Structure formats: C-alpha cells, structure tokens
Amino acid sequence: MAKPSREAISMASTSPSSLSPSKVPMELHVSNRQKLLKSLRQHLSKSSRPHHGFVLLQGGEEQTRYCTDHIELFRQESYFAYLFGVREPGFYGAIDIATGKSILFAPRLPANYAVWLGEIKPVSYFQERYMVSMVYYTDEIVQLLVDQYKGSGKPLLFLLHGLNTDSNNFSKPAEFKGIENFERDLTTLHPVLTECRVCKSDLELALIQIANNISSEAHVEVMRKTKAGMKEYQLESMFLHHTYMYGGCRHCSYTCICATGENSAVLHYGHAAAPNDRILEDGDMALLDMGAEYSFYGSDITCTFPVNGKFTSDQSLIYNAVLDAHNAVIAAMKPGVSWVDMHKLAEKIILESLEKGNILVGNLDDMMVERVGAVFMPHGLGHLLGIDTHDPGGYPKGIERPKEPGLKSLRTARQLLEGMVITVEPGCYFIDALLVPAMKSANTSKFFNREIVDKFKNFGGVRIESDVLVTANGSKNMTKVPRETWEIEAVMAGGPWPLNKASG
C-alpha cells in the first residue's frame, strides 16, 4: 500500500477548532479494497479455489420512524463504509476478484427527487467521487455481473454473513431481484473482511486522530463549563455542539453518557430510560463518556472529574486507583501482549489501591483468585475501535471468550497486534447489585471493610478511557485530555490546555 502524503497525516495534528473540517482522501477506501482483495485471494489460494467471483455488499437503507414519514438521519452500514466510503443510502458495491475492478450500483432516483432532495447526480459523479472502476444502476446488477464474470457456470457471489461478537447480531447478506441466477458463498467473506478491519492503515489512523482531537477538545470545554446546578444533558449538549460546530462531526460514535453522583455507577447510563437528566450537585463526581465520529471513524473517551473542580481525599483515592491502572496498561502495551493479562493488570492495581485505602483487607493474590476485581470493574478493560465504537474482530475463530466474572465481559481476548486501536478504560464503581452479594459470599466477604465500603455507598464510580494505538514497540495514546488530578483542577480553574502552552 502506498504511504499517505505528508498533507494527509498533518490534517490530524492541527487543532480542529482552528480550521475547516479536513477533506477525506478516498484513497483510504481504495486501500481498504486492495487489502481485502489481497487477503481474500490468499485465502482462496490456500484452499485451492480459483480467483473467480465477486464480493458483493449491500449498503444501508434509509429508515423511517415507525409508520411515519419522518426519515432518521442516515449513517452508512459499517462494512460498506469501510470498503466504499459511500455516504448515500441505497447503494450496492462489488469487487471482481479476478480483475480487482470495483463497481458501485446506485439507486435509480425518480424525477421528483430533484424537487424535494436536490440534484440527481449522474453515475460519473459517483465514479469520480468514490474512485471506483465503474458505476451502474441497481437494476443492472444481474446483467453487469453476468457479463463481467469470466469463470464457468453460474457467477459466484461472496456475500457478507457472520456473527458480530459484540452485539450477537448477524451481518445481513445482500439481496436483490435475480440473485437466484448466482452461486452464493455465505461463509468465506465475513471472517476475512473482519480481520482486514482489525489493524488500521495510516490514512485510517489520521481520521481516528481527528475524531480524538475534536472530542478531546470538546471534553476540555465541557470540563471548564461544568457547574453545580446544571443538568447532565447540558454537558451532553455542550459536547455535541463543540464537535459539530468546530469539527463538522454530525454523528457521535455512540449515545453520550453524562453521569453524575450515583449515576456514574450505571455503566451504560444515558439511554432513553435514564436520559442524562439529573441536576449536578456540589460534591458530585461527573463521569462523561462521549466520542465524536469523523467521516465514519470514531473516538471513545471518558473523563471523570469533580463537578466543583476540587477533588476530595476520597475522590482522589478512587480516581488515582483507576488512573494508575490506566497508565500501567498503556505502558505495558505492545505487540504480542495478551489483552486478558492487561485486564488482570488493571484489576490488580485497582485492588492494591483499595487495600491501601482500607476499603479492602487481605491478600491481593487471594482477591484475584476470587475475582474480587470484577465486583468493582464488571466490564472489560477495552475494545477495538475504528468505524464502529466496538469494532469487530475481537473473537475470531480459535479465540475463546473467558468465563470468569469480569473477564467474560472482555470484548476481545486476543494478543495485541501492531496497528490495532483499542480503548483502555479501567473503572472502579460502587454498585450495590454487586457489592451486597460479594459481602455476603463465604468466599469473598472477608475482603471487605464494611464500614469504609458504606462510606462510598453513594459515591458512584470512576472510569478513565483513552484510545490507544499499538505501535511496533509499544503504544501511542491518541487522546489528549487532562488526566492527573492537578491538571484537571488547573483546567477547571481556567488554566490553559495543553499545559505546555502556559509557558509559551
């Protein structure tokens, strides 16, 4: 693959609020198609299969809100976005395995589209914009693929069908009128294409860095403006405004989690039944898990800080326990390292801090055996990140999901590879639904100092999350927000960020 230009990489390093949103090079998606083609041909060669047939993907369709005519804002299906970068709905895309040619099929729009929705673009527009070999209409799929096919018998289609191990949902294979004229392979494409998404190219990393830059900047702005008496949704609103206003990020990677007080112990707070609507109180901790998406590629950042801008001793104890775990994991990350081992490292460091703070008592190794860490951190340490917040590829064939508490929530149990982007998000929470049974259990009750645990009953929790690139010899943190308690206090008091600008 050709190296990206200096301009393409530099677009990720400038402060997003000081420039217009960067133009995204379509070479990124050309490279993604080339990567798939190479991997698929290698796979076919290993099983002595001919290099004939077409990869065929169906893009996303616009959805209305239930039975109404209200159309939800469209966002492309992720595998289709990865290969073609198409932002419009209703497309199909194909890659000829024999020749490497890429083909888009555009919907044939009715004449009144031009009245209500804008200019009807010719196929030449899509060919130039998306840098594909040819573009036809969706009603020409059958004839075009039959004409292009050079093998014997019915033309072969490699369709996308496989399990997403994060959602337990299956990818939907392409459907179209006349598909019965083709042979269909539903097993080969999904694992090969999923593995292509695991390690990122330089151009992909540039987009993930842009998403991190603008999201980091937005987190700092929210941190500066947070005050007791506000509503949680005001923090969400400030974040969304900043990333869209200054970064051109129309989509978020996921629903914002703006949790304060006891809500910060609710791991996926912010959903419709818990809609970021509590009033912030003096003395609360705020846990804000928010990330913008830039040209399909995402970010996933969590900052935790005191609403009033000053850490108490109890808040510092829990916060620094999580920060020490966060920093230790990032320092230990490199190719070949087991992600399960990284989770255990984070757990052990948090348990050590809780033991020093007299929340826990007893032998740390015994606590690890009894999985006490999962009482305070029931979620996994992190997940692959890219076009999806939880990017696929966490459990390819041959990688088993652990079964122990905490570890079973890991979204991958792989060894790290150069080019992976993975979130590092240790947490420490005081969740009654976990603490009460653990303090009653014959195996774990001895570890808890009940009097001190009771002090933290309404504390909530702390999570610190950064997006980290695995490099050849270590790792690089792509997230740029205040992390040390003194940095957070300085920024919330009106100090500059980044801090190195203060001395300039």
TrEMBL record:
Q: Does the keyword Protein transport apply?
A: no
Source taxon at top rank: Eukaryota
InterPro entries assigned: Aminopep_P_N, Creatin/AminoP/Spt16_N, Creatinase/aminopeptidase-like, Pept_M24, X-Pro_dipept-like
The entry's protein name is Xaa-Pro dipeptidase
- Composition bias of kind Low complexity appears in 10-24
Residue ranges of domain Aminopeptidase P N-terminal in the record: 24-168
- Catalytic activity line of the entry: Xaa-L-Pro dipeptide + H2O = an L-alpha-amino acid + L-proline
Q: How does it assemble?
A: Homodimer.
Per the entry, which co-factors are needed? Mn(2+)
